[in-house]
Design brief:
Two copies of one chain form a homodimer. Chain A is α/β, with parallel strands linked by helices. The first copy, chain A, folds into two domains: 3-14 and 104-232, 3-Layer(aba) Sandwich (Rossmann fold), CATH 3.40.50; 16-100, Putative phosphatase, domain 2 (DNA polymerase, domain 1, Orthogonal Bundle). Chain A contains eleven helices and six strands. Chain A has helices at residues 15-29, 37-46, 48-56, 65-79, 89-96, 108-116, 129-139, 149-152, 159-168, 183-191, 226-232; strands spanning 3-6, 120-125, 147-148, 176-180, 195-199, 221-223. Chain A has a six-stranded parallel sheet, with helices on both faces. In chain A, helix 7 links the parallel strand 2 and strand 3. In chain A, helix 6 runs parallel beside helix 11. Chain A is globular, with a radius of gyration of 18 Å. The interface between A and B is medium-sized, with 17 and 17 residues. Chains A, B: It comes from Thioclava atlantica. Chains A, B: One of its GO terms (molecular function) is hydrolase activity, acting on acid halide bonds, in C-halide compounds. Chains A, B: InterPro entries: 2-HAD, HAD-like_sf, HAD-SF_hydro_IA, HAD_sf, S-2-haloacid_dehalogenase.
Chain lengths: 235, 235
């Protein structure tokens, strides 16, 4: 095994608390009191998959996730009964960058640092390069390279997202372990010939999470967190 | 200014000594005594620009630099009067990766580390992603991301190499300073709207170097090395 590629949102960083924190600041500034910031974070994230599906289906050319996030922000506000027009658009632009400022789970930096001593470590995320770069620089994530959907112009779980990333690393997919807290991501990676590591993140979606609470296939590794994965990889 | 992008071969790493060292090892193993390893390094490097010119001119689709280096290795041996067929092809494959194992100039790591505290730092090199990643991991180059020709499928000085890199960073070219020891690289970057920093590397081509000994335009910065550049950037 030569490389470990990591899903990022949910697997390495806690998007829900980070987004809710910045939503709360905006809502306080504008006196919005009838929408829970966590509900808004969930609504924003709920539009993530359908917005990428348009690109995956070829109904829309590839655009970076920052742009999808910005469109989804206004759509989610409207769906939650808050008129996006009450906010200056520069403030929505600034909130959109909250995805660049997410905090890692407590085990992430130690786990990645240990795995980096044995393998190439890089994100294989649907986030665009600048988003992942800003996130890493702020949080100190020790990636060897910033990879992901934008470099191969394909969103996971499109096979090209996995196969194109393997080509950029000049590796056979079997030399790569895909690390994710999401069974569907690992299923797609396995179909492409990658090895797979499931990391338990039972609070990614908050206290009521009812998805990805357990492995749904016999993944090559199942880990409680990234330090546990490092230990299993002998790192 | 938001980002500093660095030419790599010659500006950050000393390709000539690194290549000659590994050529010497191969030649010793096979009893080749009539070709100076430094002359072979120079001959190999001399085919670099013409091989990329085929891609830039559209006469050949984009291929990663590792492949051009591999072809150029055999061509350079032949030109120097050494039959490449005397070496097992696996040994030439291994030598080809010498470009992944180049040492940084003595000031490079300190200079990059200081500049990284103020700006995004990344290579904007014609090297492919895996080459630059291996180089950084071995030498400890503290890049925020691995960028370069392969991500935008255009070799410098094609304007797309500079403009595509700026797009990936979601920056206007004027927010980027291109750092290079080569006047032609900076001239192309300036045409694309980037700021420019010339770093003196008077021994890149050995004791007889007669190119790039001085700035040929009024570059925004002229620096003795990367620590001097860090100081000029207030880093």
């Amino acid at each position: 095994m030569q490389a470990a590629l990591f899903d990022t949102f949910g697997t390495v960083v806690d998007w829900r608390r980070g987004i809710a924190r910045e939503v709360a600041t905006l809502f306080e500034r504008h006196g919005v009191t009838d929408l829970d910031p966590f509900a808004m974070a969930d609504a924003w994230r709920a539009r993530y998959a359908p917005s990428m599906a348009e690109v995956r289906a070829g109904r829309r050319p590839f655009v970076p996730l920052d742009l999808l996030h910005r469109e989804n922000l206004e759509a989610a506000l409207s769906l939650c009964g808050v008129d996006p027009a009450i906010f200056p658009s520069e403030e929505l632009d600034a909130l959109n960058l909250a995805w660049h400022r997410l905090d890692p789970w407590p085990d992430a930096i130690e786990g990645l640092t240990r795995i980096k001593a044995r393998l190439i470590v890089a994100p294989l995320s649907n986030g665009n390069l600048r988003l992942l770069l800003d996130m890493a620089k702020r949080a100190g994530l020790p990636w060897d390279a910033i990879m992901g959907a934008e470099l191969v112009r394909a969103y996971k779980p499109d096979p090209e997202a996995y196969l194109g990333s393997a080509r950029l690393l000049d590796l056979d997919p079997s030399e790569i372990v895909m690390v994710a807290a999401h069974n569907d991501d690992l299923a797609a990676a396995r179909t492409c010939g990658m090895r797979t590591a499931f990391v338990l993140r039972p609070h990614e979606h908050g206290p009521g999470q009812n998805t990805d609470l357990a492995p749904e296939q016999d993944w090559d590794f199942v880990a409680a967190d990234l330090c546990d994965l490092a230990a299993q990889l002998g790192a």
